[in-house]
Design goal:
The structure holds 2 protein chains of 2 kinds.
Chain A lengths: L15 H13 L15 H5 L1 H5 L4 H9 L3 H8 L21 H14 L3 H6 L4 H10 L18 H8 L1 H6 L17 H13 L2 H8 L1 H17 L12
Helix pairs in contact in A: 1-5, 4-6, 8-13, 12-13
Chain B lengths: L30 H10 L4 E3 L6 E5 L5 E5 L3 E4 L2 H6 L1 H14 L3 E2 L10 H5 L5 H18 L2 E4 L2 H16 L1 H14 L4 E3 L5 H7 L1 H6 L9 E5 L2 H4 L22 H6 L3 E2 L14 H5 L1 H19 L4 E4 L2 H9 L1 H6 L8 E3 H8 L18 H7 L3 H16 L8 H4 L1
Parallel strand pairs in B: 1-7, 4-5, 4-6, 8-9, 8-10, 10-11
Antiparallel strand pairs in B: 2-3
Helix pairs in contact in B: 1-6, 3-16, 5-6, 5-7
The chains are: A mainly alpha, B alpha/beta.
The structure holds iron/sulfur cluster (2 copies).
């Protein structure tokens, strides 16, 4: 097989068998069969795509490369531009009923599960979000509104962060008086969430992706699970 | 020799007189066929909306969708509750004002789709188990799920497709739920709160207090509302000829505001999940160059109304940096729930919590006839009571 379509391909030294293995993993995903039906090369997806306007990125390339089974170019995309996708699914306008954004969702999961260095790099600054989602069951916490994290959002962020506690109490629904969580999640629900992470193998994915996050997440989970008579190590992955 | 043809050319029909009546087969399968089939086989429980407790609306290809009126389990959104709390508060306030019973649960997690659309640090079994744990909880609590977040709504519909088509996934999720002591339940419909607002628009209009006829509005339809599982979004032949989702535009029109169009309505807001947190230069650029500036130039609206968490955040917060670069920006951004609540006379700070938004919304309030100085003083008074320890929290009674 020829090399990738890119003259400046970065991963020419990676053995074709490895590229083929990951390509087959994408194709084995149950969602694969409803994401790609061929391609008219019409470019409608590109015209709809926000990421195509600001990055060297094209949903059409994904549809065509995957349809042609060009594993070399696939591997370049897998390690680079796929992280530019906004996951907005504007490309579902495709007249061929393709879902290039959906192809990318699957590719990203394969990259993360296999612990590719490019995925680790792409998600480095994001790891605290992974921790927040998995440890609390909610992601966008009020106490994230800090001027050093959102300096470009203007002076209102400063006002919110200065008044956070009293302003949160000045919201009528009683579930919203929280500052570290988006809303008050019950302990039983948090316990069930932790069991899902473990039973579904999701915790193992985090271990492959980011050892540090895995350690602190396990600690938090262990504490609550133990209180309720579970031993984290004994809860087995059952899927 | 020339011949005369006896043809009278009537000219093109005026757009307002044209009417497209859909006759063809519906191109997508109907999820309910599989859902009820699985129920008949004893594989899942279908959580039904009670008879007499729904409004029927049309979806993209003319199928009917049931929108529950009350007894709803409010599946909150982390972005709304965390950063735009007036968004969710307004949804609850509308229910209270219309006299409809609802439940605001603590036994709810988010859909956790941040680990799906942003990081992909999850898998289908975990994502489906999270969805169905929430659904099972709603079922056990005796309320029908109403989803506040557009992404949760889209993600749950994708999850529904996966669950319905893949026996293997159903088995995995059932094993997980067994361990939690929860049944495998799927609701009869996945309903977004903005669909409820749409279905309730006449009741909201009947209680309207403010005249909005001089308020110019542009609408941003949320991507995860109408681009994921496209056939299930609400369309109405009286809005955009039925060629664009009617959700949000329907309530804006019902309230008598001046709804204006703009060329990039189909574009996303620039949120991008990963981008809004770690590549915000992209989000800011897209939100302001492709959305806000286009709206300004083409419609010059007083406000943008939208119906998802990320859209309000991105379109609103991105404008500060653009303003510093003297770009043509400066449009307040609100949710449909906040806009409807304001129209019904809700307090702009105690209920709609507009002080959490970025763009200056005072000119908008003035145009709507709201005395924002008085309202802010009233809010500050309550905050002082909280700070002094006189009250612990602002109650619904204080806010209403
Ligand atoms: S989902 Fe990704 S590829 Fe598709 S339009 Fe959005 S940014 Fe582009
Ligand atoms: S819109 Fe569809 S058919 Fe057209 S180029 Fe994109 S993937 Fe190919």
């Amino acid at each position: 097989m020829m090399g990738s379509i890119y003259a400046d391909a970065k991963y020419q030294d990676v053995p074709v068998e490895e590229k083929e293995r990951l390509f087959q993993e994408v194709k084995a995903d149950m969602r694969w069969h409803t994401t790609l039906y061929g391609c008219y090369e019409c470019g409608i997806c590109v015209a709809s795509c926000p990421s195509a306007r600001f990055y060297d990125f094209s949903p059409r390339v994904y549809a065509q490369v995957m349809a042609r089974e060009d594993v070399h170019t696939f591997y370049e995309l897998l390690n680079d531009s796929m992280w530019d996708c906004s996951q907005c699914f504007s490309c579902t306008r495709c007249p061929r009923q393709n879902n290039p954004g959906g192809i990318i969702t699957i590719m990203r999961e394969v990259a993360v599960k296999n612990g590719l260095q490019s995925a680790k790099t792409a998600l480095q600054a994001y790891s605290r979000i992974i921790y927040k989602v998995m440890s609390t069951g909610t992601q966008v916490a009020p106490d994230m509104l800090q001027p050093d994290f959102f300096p470009d959002w203007g002076p209102d962020v400063v006002k919110v962060s200065e008044n956070l506690d009293s302003w949160r109490r000045a919201i009528p629904p009683e579930t919203l008086h929280t500052t570290e969580l988006a809303w008050d999640v019950s302990e039983q629900t948090q316990l069930e969430l932790y069991l899902i992470w473990k039973l579904s193998g999701n915790l193992d994915i985090i271990e492959t992706l980011d050892e540090g996050i895995f350690m602190i997440l396990s600690e938090v989970m262990e504490e609550l699970l133990e209180e309720h008579g579970y031993d984290l190590d004994e809860v087995e992955v059952i899927i | 020799m020339s011949s005369k043809l006896n043809v009278i050319n009537p000219g093109p029909t005026k757009a307002k007189d044209r009417f497209f009546d859909r006759k063809g087969e519906i191109p997508t399968e109907y999820f309910k066929d599989q859902l009820f089939d699985l129920e008949a086989k004893g594989e899942i429980i279908v959580h039904r909306i009670e008879e007499g407790n729904y409004v029927e609306v049309d979806t993209k290809y003319g199928r009917k969708k049931k929108i529950p009126i009350q007894n709803t389990w409010h599946h909150k959104s982390c972005g709304q509750c965390g950063h735009i709390p007036g968004y969710s508060t307004s949804i609850f306030w509308l229910h209270r004002q219309l006299g409809y019973n609802y439940y605001d649960p603590k036994d709810q997690t988010s859909c956790t789709a941040w680990n799906y659309y942003a990081s992909s640090a999850s898998n289908s079994a975990a994502q489906a188990a999270i969805a169905i744990r929430n659904f099972a909880q709603a079922y056990q609590d005796g309320y029908f799920p109403l989803i506040h977040c557009g992404t949760s709504y889209g993600h749950y519909k994708e999850t529904r497709n996966e669950i319905l088509h893949h026996q293997g996934l159903r088995d995995q999720v059932r094993r997980i739920l067994d361990k939690l002591g929860k049944p495998l339940v799927f609701p009869e419909e996945i309903v977004h709160y903005s669909e409820w607002v749409h279905a309730m628009r006449d009741e909201i209009k009947a209680r309207q207090k403010l005249d909005l006829s001089n308020v110019v509005v542009t609408v941003h339809p949320a991507c995860h509302y109408h681009k994921l599982v496209v056939e299930d979004a609400i369309y109405d032949r009286d809005l955009y000829d039925g060629q664009r989702t009617a959700t949000v535009s329907g309530i804006v029109k019902a309230l008598g505001a001046d709804l204006q169009d703009y060329s990039t309505w189909h574009d996303c807001c620039g949120f991008g999940f990963r981008h809004i947190l770690v590549s915000r230069d992209f989000s800011r650029s897209f939100a302001t160059l492709r959305k806000i500036e286009r709206m300004k130039e083409e419609a010059n609206p007083d406000v943008v109304i939208t119906h998802d968490t990320g859209c309000v955040t991105t379109l609103d917060k991105s404008q500060f940096a653009a303003k510093a670069h003297n770009r043509n920006v400066g449009i307040p951004v609100l949710s449909d729930s906040q806009f409807a609540a304001l129209a019904m006379g809700a307090h702009p700070y105690k209920v709609c919590q507009l002080h959490w938004h970025g763009v200056d919304n005072k000119p908008l309030m003035e145009k709507m006839g709201i005395d924002h100085e008085k309202a802010w003083a009233e809010f500050e008074e309550q905050v002082e009571r909280i700070k002094s320890g006189e009250i612990e929290f602002l109650s619904w009674e204080d806010a209403e």
